[in-house]
Amino acid sequence: MRTLILLALAGLGAQLVDGSLGMAYGVTSTTLLLAVGTNPAAASATVHLAEIGTTLASGVAHWRFGNVDWRVVLKIGIPGAVGAFAGATFLSALSTELAEPVMALLLLGLGLYVLGRFTVAGLPTDKLDKPLRKRFLSPLGLVAGFLDATGGGGWGPVGTPAILASGRLEPRKVIGSIDTSEFLVAVAASLGFLFGLGGEGVNWLWAVALLAGGLIAAPIAAWLVRHVPPRILGSAVGGLIVLTNIRTLLRSDWLGAGDTTQWTVYGFVYVVWAAAVAYSVKEHRRTSRTAPRPAAEPVDARPAEATTT
């Protein structure tokens, strides 16, 4: 029972982060399952089964709050489902040891770009009127879906920064669309795992516990992303991307950094991240105070006509 309660709390926290920042549910939940000794394929399968419910609830909540661009959902979600099914089916025969640090390096670059752009310049508006093209979203969805299934998480960390960096969709709609399209990815990955594993090693009770926590957090996260200013949200997302991928690189065979080095780097990143978010908050308040107010309705100064008796 204690394990189920902890898993439910983990699911709540993971969905709160994922629903408000567009990433981290799979990474957080899979990491916890691996820590208690679940094999990678079964851990990813359990998480994706839970995500069928959490992504559905999150998608509905984001839709109700106006955070979803359905064109983006379809253009990235369908290829993502194809990639997720392929990744889940062939997980046991694939090695991601080399691909993981390479992708982490690319994502780190994107994270630094997003963090710097939103912190310094705020919400990019120069391209918000230009649609995201299918030739960009389809390959992105295919790769993100494949990595999500094989790595136990990756749909948000790959899709969110790439679309944010394009500057063609405001942050709340990026997050809402990524979270909504993840439902298709979760269904496809679950079917792939059931086809490849036959349910072996999948803990259905754990999946239900993760789902329960996620369902509670989904509407809260959708409300949060609706009301957090885009500049602050962009800085928060960028910092999360940087921290997550620096952690992956430091623990990879490429670097193999010791504990002292890791925590020194983490401390530095936390300080920079906190400073960036604080600066974004300060600049948002400043621009909000100086922004021109809408003109008041003109008042008719003519005296009212006298009524005849």
UniProtKB/TrEMBL annotation:
<protein>
    <recommendedName>
        <fullName>Probable membrane transporter protein</fullName>
    </recommendedName>
</protein>
<keyword id="KW-0472">Membrane</keyword>
<feature type="transmembrane region" description="Helical">
    <location>
        <begin position="204"/>
        <end position="225"/>
    </location>
</feature>
<feature type="region of interest" description="Disordered">
    <location>
        <begin position="289"/>
        <end position="309"/>
    </location>
</feature>
<feature type="transmembrane region" description="Helical">
    <location>
        <begin position="232"/>
        <end position="250"/>
    </location>
</feature>
<keyword id="KW-0812">Transmembrane</keyword>
<keyword id="KW-1003">Cell membrane</keyword>
<feature type="transmembrane region" description="Helical">
    <location>
        <begin position="102"/>
        <end position="125"/>
    </location>
</feature>
<feature type="transmembrane region" description="Helical">
    <location>
        <begin position="43"/>
        <end position="65"/>
    </location>
</feature>
<keyword id="KW-1133">Transmembrane helix</keyword>
<dbReference type="InterPro" id="IPR002781">
    <property type="entry name" value="TM_pro_TauE-like"/>
</dbReference>
<comment type="similarity">
    <text>Belongs to the 4-toluene sulfonate uptake permease (TSUP) (TC 2.A.102) family.</text>
</comment>
<feature type="transmembrane region" description="Helical">
    <location>
        <begin position="72"/>
        <end position="96"/>
    </location>
</feature>
<dbReference type="InterPro" id="IPR051598">
    <property type="entry name" value="TSUP/Inactive_protease-like"/>
</dbReference>
<feature type="transmembrane region" description="Helical">
    <location>
        <begin position="262"/>
        <end position="281"/>
    </location>
</feature>
<dbReference type="Pfam" id="PF01925">
    <property type="entry name" value="TauE"/>
</dbReference>
